[in-house]
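Title: Prediction job returns without error message
Component: structure pipeline
Severity: low
Priority: P3
Assignee: unassigned

Description:
Job completed but the reporter wants confirmation the result is attached to the right record. Sequence as submitted:
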Amino acid sequence: KRGVKLLQYHGLLDGSIPPAMSTQYFDRVQARMSDTQDYYRLFLAPGVLHCGFGPGPNAFGNLGPRGPADAEHDTLLALERWVEKGVAPDHIIATKYTDDDPRKPVLRTRPLCPYPQAARWDGKGDINRSESFECASIAMPGGAAKPTSAASNARPTSGRTPSSDSTSSSAAIPASRSAPPSEVRVLSVAT
C-alpha cells in the first residue's frame, strides 16, 4: 500500500544460511499477506555461494563479478526500475564468466526466476544461453506445484545439463524436479 518493493535473492550453494530459510520466509509472508507479487520477489540462484561467486552463473548485481549494468542483469537496477517505472522483474539474467572475470568470455547465462518458479530448459536450444530457458512453475513428485521449503539439492534425473561440470548446481531443472534457494540479499526501497 505504501509502494514498498522488496527484491531478495538466495544462492543455492550458500553454506552460511540454509536456503530453505528464504523460501520459508517468503511462504509465511505470502500466507499472511496473500498475493505478494506486487511488492516482493524472491530469486533463487543455482550455483551461487553466500553473497556471490560459486560455480554457477554468479554475476547479477550481487557480491560477485560485475555483469552488464542494466535492469535485466542487475538486481539493484531491476529494483530501481520496479520502484521508479512500475516494471516488476519477471527474471534476472545471471552470467558466468571465465575465471569469474568480466573481462574474459562468457561461459553461460541463466535466468533467475521469481520463486516459486525455476528456469526450465526448452529441450532444444543452447544450454549455455539464457534464451534457451523459461521461468516455469515446477511440478514436484506427488503433484505439488511449487518447491517447498523442505526441498533438497535435487539433480536432474534425465535430459541434458548445462555443463559437464558435475559440481555445478546451475543445471537445467526438468519439470519434475526443483532446486532449493541459497544466498540472501534483501533490498527495499519505499516510494
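Comment from assignee: result matches the submitted record. Helices lie at 20-33, 75-85.
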